[in-house]
Amino acid sequence: MLDEKHISKFLRYANYDLSDLENRVQCLSNEIINLESQKRNAMNKVILWSAQLSDLGKAIDHKNQQLKRMGK
């Protein structure tokens, strides 16, 4: 059985127009989709930057080795 707290909450929401609530739910659903897309894009950038940093580190190591061989 619903207690007084739940009934009060239900009645408070019942005062809203159903179409307003449906619109709000749709807006929030769209926002979730947008945020998930932004998250995927950010993760892809992090992966790309990580690969670029790794490549740069390898290039620096290679150049350092060349310089050491030239200095011998």
Contiguous low-pLDDT stretches (5 residues minimum) are none
Question: In percent, how helical is the residue content?
Answer: over 70%
Largest sheet: none
Distance N to C terminus:
86 Å
The share of residues in extended strands comes to under 5%
- Please provide the ordered H/E string of secondary-structure elements: HH
| Number of distinct helices | 2
- What class do helices, strands and sheet pairing give? mainly alpha
As a whole number of angstroms, the C-alpha radius of gyration is 28 Å
Number of strands: 0
Shape: rod-shaped
**What's the rounded overall pLDDT mean?**
89
Question: How are the SSEs placed, and which strands pair?
Answer:
Elements: H1 4-14, H2 18-71
Structural overview:
This protein has 72 residues and is mainly alpha-helical. The chain has a domain at 23-71. The chain is built from 2 helices and no strands. It has helices at 4-14, 18-71. The longest helix has 54 residues, at 18-71. The protein is rod-shaped and about 85 Å long. The N and C termini lie far apart (86 Å).
